[in-house]
TrEMBL record:
One of its GO terms (molecular function) is sigma factor activity. The keyword Repressor does not apply. The lineage of its organism: Bacteria, Pseudomonadati, Planctomycetota, Planctomycetia, Isosphaerales. It comes from Singulisphaera acidiphila (strain ATCC BAA-1392 / DSM 18658 / VKM B-2454 / MOB10). This is DNA-directed RNA polymerase specialized sigma subunit, sigma24. One of its GO terms (cellular component) is DNA-directed RNA polymerase complex.
Length: 228
């Protein structure tokens, strides 16, 4: 997917205005985050809500419909877009839960423990933050790959080096043997690859969370810490 160097707030405005490409990109970017939060929130007592896919779709519809949540999004909201999306998903989930609880009451079924769900919100917010961090890392990896394609073969090789190191969990010495290069030189390339990824991450974070360089750096550090 091509990386568009526009802030997520531009994406939101375009999606709210009905732009088909922006709506598609919104869904691709943020569906995994929404799904992770709802799956954790509705584990156990809320299995009776039905298919998780339907619930995720409800959230997306609520965000993207005319007069929906995206129309009310504001770039000056504290916490940036992450805070907006968290609040949006949580509010939609609470409405679904209330509706389901009323239905259970009418049908004389066992009550749903809404208080128990609310009481676990701290843990759920951590699930959301971790899913958000993973989504941002995916965007950063895409951005690094795009930049590498412009820079040439050596840069693309460094992208592959990171993939082997983190996705395949191969030690640097094994990658060096696989590629037929000496280990110290590959360690140097590995350090450079990590720097390039950090630069791509800073670009992506700046799109989601505009601010001074030190604010972007702090947000990057927080996101990385969520995945440790």
């Amino acid at each position: 997917m091509a990386h568009h160097l526009s802030t997520c707030w531009t994406l939101l405005r375009d999606a709210a205005a009905g732009g088909e490409a922006s709506r598609t990109e919104f869904a691709i970017r943020y569906t995994p985050v929404v799904r992770a939060y709802l799956a954790a929130r509705w584990r156990g007592s809320f299995k009776r809500l039905g298919e998780l896919d339907d619930a995720v779709q409800d959230v997306l519809v609520e965000c993207l419909r005319d007069g929906g949540l995206l129309d009310r999004a504001r770039a000056d909201r504290p916490g940036g877009f992450r805070a907006f999306l968290y609040g949006a998903v949580r509010n939609v989930a609470m409405r679904v839960e209330t509706r389901q609880a009323r239905q259970h009451a009418r049908e004389s079924q066992a009550p749903i423990d809404l208080q128990g769900i609310a009481g676990s919100e701290d843990a759920l917010s951590r699930v959301f933050d971790r899913a958000w961090a993973k989504a941002v890392m995916r965007e950063a990896a895409e951005r690094q790959s795009e930049l590498a394609a412009q820079r040439g073969e050596a840069a693309l090789r460094r992208v592959e080096l990171l993939r082997l190191r983190f996705h395949e969990e191969m030690p640097i010495r094994e990658i060096a043997q696989l590629w037929g290069v000496d280990t110290p030189s590959l360690h140097h390339e590995y350090a450079r690859a990590r720097q390039e990824f950090r630069s791509a991450l800073e670009q992506v974070v700046a799109l989601h969370h505009p601010g001074a360089p030190e604010d972007v750096d702090r947000e990057c550090a927080q996101l990385l810490s969520l995945l440790e």
